[in-house]
Specification:
Blueprint (H helix, E strand, L loop, with lengths): L1 E4 L6 H13 L1 H4 L2 H15 L8 H8 L13 H18 L7 E4 L8 E5 L17 H10 L7 H30 L1
Antiparallel strand pairs: 1-3, 2-3
Length: 182
C-alpha cells in the first residue's frame, strides 16, 4: 500500500506539508540542528539539487560548520544523520502516521526519499457492541493524556526546582522562627 518515490512523482507541496509537520513535532522543536539538517536536504532535493547533498554541504550549509570541514576526519554529519533517522521514525510513529507522504533518509545516504502512503481505510463495521467513540472525543482524550513535559530531563528539572523551592521555604520559616525567639 506504500510506494517509494522520488520528488518527480510526489507533489512538492505534499512533501513541504510533511516537512512542516515534522518541524512542528516536539522532537524537532527541541533540536534546531536536526530541523536545519532536514530542511536543508528537503529543499535541496525539491530544488533539483539532490545530487549535491553530501556530508560537506550539509555541514557547511545547514549545520554552520566552517569551509575547512573535513567529513573524513569529522563524523558529526553521520552522527546527526543517524539521529535524524531515529527522530523521523519517532515522528512518523506518532503524529505523522496519518500524513500521506513519509520523508525518509536511507542509511548510507543523505539524500531524502519520499514514501507516498495510501490513506488508511476505516475498519469494517463489527458485531454489535459498545458504540464507537467519536473522533473528536478521542482527540480531546489524546491531548489531555499527553505529558506535561516534552522530555524526562524537563520533568527532572521541574522536580529539582520544586525541591529547592521547598527547602528555601523551610529555611525562611526557620529564620523567622529564630528571629521570633530572640
Amino acid at each position: 500500500m506504500s510506494e517509494q518515490t522520488t520528488v518527480e512523482t510526489v507533489p512538492a507541496e505534499a512533501v513541504r506539508r510533511s516537512l512542516d509537520g515534522c518541524l512542528r513535532a516536539p522532537a524537532f522543536r527541541r533540536s534546531p540542528k536536526l530541523a536545519a539538517f532536514l530542511s536543508y536536504i528537503i529543499e535541496e532535493e525539491l530544488a533539483g539539487r539532490g545530487e549535491g547533498i553530501k556530508a560537506y554541504t550539509i555541514a557547511t550549509q545547514a549545520l554552520g560548520r566552517s569551509d575547512s570541514f573535513d567529513p573524513g576526519n569529522d563524523p558529526s554529519v553521520r552522527v546527526e544523520a543517524g539521529r535524524l533517522r531515529r527522530v523521523l521514525d519517532e515522528v512518523y510513529a506518532e503524529e505523522g502516521r496519518l500524513w500521506p507522504v513519509r520523508i525518509q533518509v536511507p542509511v548510507g545516504a543523505y539524500r531524502p526519499s519520499f514514501e507516498l502512503r495510501a490513506v488508511e481505510e476505516p475498519e469494517p463495521p463489527q458485531a454489535p457492541g459498545p458504540a464507537p467513540v467519536p473522533a473528536a472525543v478521542l482527540r480531546v482524550a489524546s491531548a489531555s493524556s499527553r505529558s506535561l513535559f516534552d522530555t524526562r530531563g524537563q520533568a527532572v528539572m521541574a522536580l529539582l526546582l520544586a525541591v529547592i523551592a521547598a527547602l528555601l521555604a523551610i529555611e525562611i520559616v526557620l529564620q523567622i522562627y529564630a528571629l521570633a525567639r530572640t
